[in-house]
Amino acid sequence: MLKQGLELKQTQKLSPLQIQTIKLIELPIQELEQRVKAELEENPVLDDSPAPDKEDRDDEPKDVSIDEIDENDPIPSYKLRVNNYGKDERPQYNTFSVKESFTQSLMEQLGYRNLSKHDHDVAAFIIGSLDEDGYLRRDVESIVDDLAFRANIQSDPEEVLRILKIIQEFEPVGVGARDLRECLILQLHSQKQTREVQLAETVLTDYFQEFSNKHFQKIITKLGLSEDDMKAVISRIVKLNPAPGGQIDDSYNDQAQQIVPDFVLDIEDGDLKLTMPRFSIPEIRVNRKYAELLADAQGSTDRQQKEAATFVKQKLDSAKWFVEALKQRHNTLESTMKAILDYQHEYFLDGDESHLRPMVLKDIAEVTGFDISTISRVVNSKYIETHFGIFPLKYFFSEGLENQEGEEVSTRELKMALRECVDSEDKRKPLTDDQLVAEMNKRGYKVARRTIAKYRDQLDIPKARLRKEL
Description:
Helix content is about 45%, strand content about 5%. It has helices at about 15-25, 30-40, 100-110, 115-130, 140-150, 155-165, 180-190, 195-205, 210, 215-225, 225-240, 290-295, 305-345, 345-350, 360-370, 370-380, 410-425, 435-440, 450-460; strands at about 45, 65, 265-270, 270-275, 285, 385, 390, 400, 410. A hairpin with a 2-residue loop joins strand 6 (about 385) and strand 7 (about 390). The termini are far apart.
């Protein structure tokens, strides 16, 4: 038997302006600038030409500020003013962590080699097959097959290996290795061949597994080394670079590896001063011919003229929504960042991590009145430049646990204490997780063994057995 009934549901439909604002809030500053540029390019009635100089002749054609247009009244005189720029319309900003393309660097080095076109093409294909960390993780036979089917280049395993050896001579040393052992051995090959370097190469060549598992005594016995010899070998190997490709960021892939801070924090007379210097709402200006079309349509009975005016008005409304969304984005980011500064005020004065309070998204949502989802969008992909470094906003958020006095402390403080315990341990007898629990208790932190194991993994601290040294 079917039953019919009415059910009331309360739903909230977002306005176009709200949707626009949400999308803009999510964007980091570089993408926001591209979005503004795209809006100016895609909306045919808009121009992004600069405001005219005072010396401009009055009889020259000028664009119209969108604020000057009233669709219900005749368009006033074309008074052009910039009313939403700062003193400097295009200030210069620092861009951080922009490095040379890894692939580009290798291709430039390849260009210096006197190779035949065939060998050059094979080498270029191999370079394109490297992972971001500089390793070649595909087997040689697969490379040969790909050369044939994807590049129409006939080769064989011996030739690929020969050309790979050439690439392995490039900088950074270790590039083109097929595993960690080969990567480290390539780096040792490039060093002055002292007894210590040769011993290190022997250890990696013949006893790599034992070395990885820190079975140093077994290596000492098999090679007849002294403890000092073994310590020198360990010291030499741990200074090698396990990821040579990591020295050069690929800044030309789909997502730019730039860090441009949305916020800049300074201290003036002991007070925190927050600015958003890169952000400026562009003045959107209307192409003169469209402004005149809109004015001419007022009072007109011509259907085509009315339709054209309707089109222009729709585009103007879209532009106004966009500018308003930019303003709301600015206000939302500014309010959120100020709330974070107030919440973590003591930390931002000196950058001492021990002063970071436990803070979650909900804490800032309650202060600002924004939804947690809004705070999450603000925090994502945004950075702040401070006098003690550049940080993603996510860095300042962490859960909390109680210490033995019942006071809440941040997980970051707990991790710092754990790191200190590990750093101060006797490396001949590293502390187990149970012993680390006891050490943390001595320092006043109540933590379970599983918590220690979780934080140790997050800090990339190996288990006790793998931390053992001679």
